[in-house]
Design a protein that fits this description.
The chain is of the alpha+beta class. The chain has a domain at 105-198. It has three helices and five strands. It has helices at 10-27, 29-121, 175-188, and strands at 128-135, 138-145, 156-159, 164-167, 192-195. It has a five-stranded antiparallel beta sheet with strand order 4-3-2-1-5. Helix 1 (10-27) packs across helix 2 (29-121). The N and C termini lie far apart (129 Å).
């Protein structure tokens, strides 16, 4: 039997339930037991429904926690990877900058030797070469015209082991300076071939000889 109780207030509904139980108990124990069982069954249904609702709510809360945690992990991972990429790029930039500085320093050093040799031999640095090598005649430091490592004639030919130097005619007044330069080249380089034509020169040198 379906009875519409929606119009009753909470107090009226509770009063009705009490009255029903009282009437069932007054009639006979069997009716009272059936009425009480029905109420307990309804109570159990409500408890089951509440428990199911709580489980579903807990499940939804757990899913939401997992979603929030996953998003947080993804954000942390993305930030970490971005930082790693930036650190890698920074390391690469620093390595490139370091290599560029080292190359610039090396070029400046080598151009410095060529410039000194050019000034003393009265030539343009792009037109000479410096060779430091161990030859069949012993260790030698040579300043040559052009960029031929094996040139037969030399502007300067220095033998550090014998401490002797051969200088092109016309440069004898520079013998001391050229000897000092060659001795420094001997100390600085185990062996080398510095060709002035391999470098960029911004200064226009004025020479007194061809």
């Amino acid at each position: 039997m379906d009875v519409d109780l929606t119009g009753l207030s909470d107090d009226q509904l509770i009063g009705l339930l009490k009255a029903g139980l009282y009437e069932a108990r007054r009639r006979n124990p069997g009716v009272y037991a059936a009425a009480e069982g029905a109420m307990l069954e309804e109570t159990e249904k409500v408890q089951i429904q509440n428990a199911a609702a709580e489980r579903e709510s807990a499940k939804l809360r757990a899913l939401e926690r997992e979603r929030v945690a996953r998003e947080a992990e993804e954000q942390v991972r993305a930030e970490f990877e971005a930082n790693q990429c930036e650190a890698h790029r920074k390391t690469q930039r620093e390595a490139v900058d370091k290599a560029a500085r080292k190359m610039a320093e090396k070029d400046a050093c080598e151009k410095g030797w060529l410039t000194r040799a050019a000034e003393l031999t009265e030539r343009k640095p792009e037109n000479i070469s410096i060779v430091v090598a161990n030859t069949s005649y012993g260790r030698r430091v040579m300043i040559n015209d052009g960029n031929d490592r094996y040139a037969r004639t030399h502007i300067v030919d220095y033998y550090p082991e014998k401490e002797t130097i051969k200088i092109e005619r016309g440069l004898t007044s520079k013998k001391i300076e050229l000897t000092v330069l060659c001795a420094e080249l001997h100390e600085h380089w185990k062996q080398c071939m510095l060709s002035g034509s391999d470098y960029q020169w911004e200064v226009s040198y004025v020479t007194t000889t061809s």
